[in-house]
Amino acid sequence: MASVRANFLWNAAYQVVRIIVPLVTLPYLSRVLGSSQLGVYAFTYTIANYFIFFILLGLNQYGVRAIAKVREDRQILSKTFCSIFAMQFLAGAAVTTVYLGYVALSSPDIIRFSLIWCIWVGAEIFDVGWLFFGLEEFKAITIRNVIIRFLVVAGIFLFVHDQEDLWVYCLIQAMGNFVSALVLWPMLAGKVRFALPKLKEIIPHIKPNLVLFAPVIAISFYTQIDKVLLGVLASMSQLGFYDNAEKITLIPLAIIQSLGTAMLPRMSKLVSSGEGESVRGHIGISIWFSTALALGLSFGIAAISPEFVPIFFGEGFEPVATMMPIIGMIIPIVAWSNVLGVQYLIPHGKDVMFLASVSVGAAVNVALNLVMIPLWQGVGSSVATVIAEFAVMLVQVYYLRSELPFRRYLKDVLPYLFIGAAMYGVIRMGVFLPVDGVARLVLEIVVGGSFFLLASIVWMKKTHDGRIKHLLPSRFR
Fold it and tell me: Would you write out the chain's pLDDT as a tens digit for each of its 477 residues?
């Protein structure tokens, strides 16, 4: 069994690739396809993704948790895997059929792209990544994802050359997801023994999986529905601006969330073993680390956006510079909700609390989007997203107020808020430098990143690391 550190590093390595890929492809795609075509891509992709939600249901949490609890016994592991996958297969077959019906009724403007996404929707029937996450075999997942990402990038530059190639771009992405879902199956040999499960073995998984599916849908209402509403209530160009601002802003968030992905199976194991002190120690360290990193990233994105957008996206994408700093505010907020939700509520089986928190966020986001999109279009959707994420975090804090020392956590991370604000000021002072263009952007990133890192180190040394010592369980001190 790999260590948490190894799992985090493997998962973080993939997140680094996820950072590099958009940085390489988005400048090219924004110039080749334009904001309107990218909006069509985002709209049809989001709709297909909603259908995929109904295939995977809550497996990204429930499947990982169920496998993590029985991984020591191969017989029980095999039985659990087969019964869960049978449920996924049946759901997938039904959903794919419904999606084909949706495609048949789609408008002529998007039907070709919606049909291409059928490849992805059907492939998700066979995605068993949750098994490998439950076994804490992050290496296999990372290698698979990295190879496929590079193949997709190569396909984009080789075959996407103008606005008429939007369907090619969709096909490349769909085929990448298709291969990603199927490539894990040869690696199942030696891990599980296949057997056709009985109906009575499948049924017990349905209810808890649906309980964790409800948060998935709720979360989608404040992470995905805004794109659908923008496409309907505003324009495909505004959706293109918003989607690109979100992609860039949320790239660094993927690294922070990778910690939660790596910690979920370990925390589930600790909880099932009754090691409450270790659980609370891990939570404290996770909040400190992820929030400190998130604050630096959030302030950094806000500071460099005026120079970054025209260089990165080119002409015609100016609204992205306004949306990026707003959406960037969710990074520290999501850092907290990711730790509290994925690393504490779900491993403790507090699924109803988790559902309640994301349901509040969903309701807030939909309501605010309906009001703000007609008024401020993409900017309004950006503001709605931040408020919705904050609502999720507040509900989780309320539920856990008597179980976790939040005042101590706030005290530990508050200095990084001031360090981040100071870094923002240092970067914006660059307007007085006699350089411009790429040179100025690179200088802003280097100077700002160095300032935040050095100031954080100075603060930690000043406090003699005592600020994190109390977060550790006694046996780790």
Answer: 455 566 666 666 666 776 678 888 999 999 999 999 999 999 999 999 999 988 888 787 788 888 888 877 778 888 888 898 899 999 999 999 999 999 999 988 899 999 999 999 999 999 888 888 778 777 777 788 888 888 999 999 999 999 999 999 999 999 999 998 888 888 887 778 888 888 888 888 888 888 778 777 877 776 788 888 998 898 899 999 998 898 888 777 777 766 655 555 666 666 666 665 666 777 888 889 889 999 999 999 999 999 999 999 988 899 999 999 999 999 999 999 988 988 888 788 787 898 899 889 889 999 999 999 999 999 999 999 999 999 999 999 999 999 998 998 999 899 999 999 999 999 998 767 777 888 899 999 999 999 999 999 888 877 645 445 544 444 444
**Residue 82 in 3-state DSSP?**
helix
**Interatomic CA distance for residues 297 and 124, integer angstroms:** 32
Closest-CA residue to 205 (of 98, 51, 89): 89
Q: How far apart are CA 395 and CA 215, in angstroms?
A: 14
Backbone angles phi, psi at 370, to 5 degrees: -65, -30
- C-alpha dihedral, 337 to 339 to 343 to 346, nearest 10°: -10
N-to-C CA span, the chain:
24
Long-range pairs for 72-80 at CB < 8 Å and ≥24 separation?
74/192, 74/193, 75/193, 77/191, 77/192, 78/192, 78/193, 78/194, 78/195, 79/195, 79/197, 79/201
Q: Which amino acid is at 467?
A: R
- Burial class of residue 330, CB neighbours in 10 A (0-12, 13-18, 19+): buried
Residues contacting 50, CB < 8 A, separation 6+? 220, 224
Number of other residues whose CB lies within 10 A of the CB of residue 185: 10
Sign of the CA dihedral with 61 first, then 64, 66, and 68 last: negative
**Distance separating alpha carbons of residues 477 and 469, to the nearest angstrom:** 7
- Token reading at 412: 């530990």
pTM of the model: 0.78
Question: By the 8 A CB rule, do 388 and 362 touch?
Answer: yes
